[in-house]
Specification:
Layout: H1 20-27, E1 69-79, E2 85-96, E3 111-120, E4 127-135, E5 141-143, E6 149-152, E7 155-159, E8 165-170, E9 175-181, E10 187-188, E11 194-196, E12 204-221, E13 224-239, E14 247-257, E15 262-270, E16 275-283, E17 289-293, E18 297-306, E19 313-322, E20 325-331, E21 337-339, E22 347-357, E23 360-369
Antiparallel strand pairs: 1-2, 1-13, 2-3, 3-4, 5-6, 6-7, 7-8, 8-9, 9-12, 10-12, 11-12, 12-13, 14-15, 14-23, 15-16, 16-17, 18-19, 19-20, 20-22, 21-22, 22-23
Length: 378
């Protein structure tokens, strides 16, 4: 998942900057006398992405608190015993604020933890979703630096020693109890995990994926648990930098192709719809990795859907061309708009899509589209 969130924390604003709405939501419930004054405090300096850095595992499964923004993002398709198909999304974010790091107060909101969860079921007709946000600390919201071990209240994602992920997530309208089992090696995006997001070297993130995760577990709705199986794609990404000033959003897709290949592609868009930066990764069945840049990638809208809530117009059907290969992306359902104004302040489209090639099914994935809704002024 690319999802390099304009922090994924402000899908319509500057890359990797925490929006004021998020800070307000986390601070508004705090008694003001618990937050020591920061007169003359220095703004923290965040770590920067270095193209010469080599990712190291299992350490890099964990959190990187010296960087401004980070997320663990899982999307996938699930099947119930009666053959019904549904899509799901689980994302945990960590964001370092500009609060002084040397502040000894346990109440100082130095790190924020945010989470989104969504279920896409055509029988419902629109995306069901929920969100959480809290300061890190007090055993209620935390991330581990040694492995993927994230907790936000009763929501959690844990990577076990054998590589399996366990997700426990009781949301408002549903509950996930899911296990993701790796079936393929880690996929390092970009140049061995150094993923460019623009023309300047510092416009980059560290980024790896785990495609073709085997999913098992249960989804509970209306008090009834249903067993599910399926496949998922997991992204982990972290950085401190910004997109090009001309960027207004992006389109990203991560797909598990039917023959075992893994495909990721994204483009950063300007206000006129042109592409400021593009990249794609295609891992073949034999493990060979193809990295493709702008001249070999084309996103072409085929059909649009207009949200009745925000009036945003999303290209929900897209033709994706990667080199000499072409796929048609078709949504599981049109209404997969996610409103995260209670946590990140953004509204975006994030949905399950089917991939077709030459008129035949060729895989399943998730498409994310940001920057189609004007930012809200609070």
């Amino acid at each position: 998942m690319l999802t390099f969130m304009l922090t994924r924390f402000e899908k319509l604003g500057a890359f990797f900057t925490v929006p004021s709405v998020l800070i307000r939501l986390c601070l508004i419930a705090l008694p003001i006398f618990f937050i020591p004054a920061q007169t003359n405090a220095e703004t923290p300096r965040f770590a920067q992405v270095n193209p010469r850095t080599t990712l190291s595992f299992p350490r890099d499964f964990g959190a990187h608190p010296d960087f401004r923004t980070e997320w663990w993002y899982a999307t996938g398709w699930l099947q119930t015993p009666d053959g019904k198909q549904v899509g799901f999304q689980v994302t945990f974010f960590r964001s370092a604020t500009e609060h002084e790091r040397t502040n000894p107060s346990k109440f100082a909101p130095k790190q924020l933890i945010v989470a989104h969860a969504a279920l896409s079921d055509p029988a419902i007709g629109k995306l069901q979703h929920d969100q959480r946000v809290a300061r890190a600390g007090f055993g209620l919201a935390q991330t581990s630096e040694s492995t993927t071990d994230i907790k936000l209240g009763k929501w959690s994602m844990l990577r076990e020693a054998d590589g399996r992920y366990r997700v426990t997530l009781p949301a408002r309208d549903f509950r996930f109890d899911l296990t993701f089992t790796p079936t393929q090696p880690i996929l390092l995006q970009g140049a061995q995990g150094y993923s460019r997001k623009g023309p300047k070297p510092e416009q980059a993130s560290y980024y790896y994926s785990e495609p073709h995760l085997q999913v098992s577990g249960a989804i509970t709705r209306n008090g009834k648990a249903v067993t599910v199986t399926g496949s998922a794609w997991l992204d982990h990404e972290w950085s401190s930098t910004v997109l090009d000033p001309k960027a207004v959003g992006w389109d990203w897709v991560g797909a598990n192709l039917g023959d075992g290949r893994a495909l990721m592609a994204f483009r950063i868009r300007a206000s006129d719809g042109s592409s400021l930066w593009q990249h794609a990764t295609l891992r073949e069945k034999d493990g060979r990795l193809r990295q493709l840049n702008a001249d070999a990638i084309r996103f072409t809208p085929v059909r649009y859907w207009r949200s009745p809530r925000t009036q945003a117009k999303y290209p929900v059907e897209v033709t994706l061309e990667i080199g000499q290969q072409r796929w048609q992306l078709r949504p599981l359902q049109d209404d997969q708009e996610l409103d995260s104004r209670q946590s990140t302040g953004a509204v975006y489209w994030e949905g399950a899509v089917m991939l077709e090639r030459d008129g035949r099914p060729d895989g399943r994935g998730y498409l994310e589209m940001t920057g189609y809704v004007k930012p809200l002024k609070l």
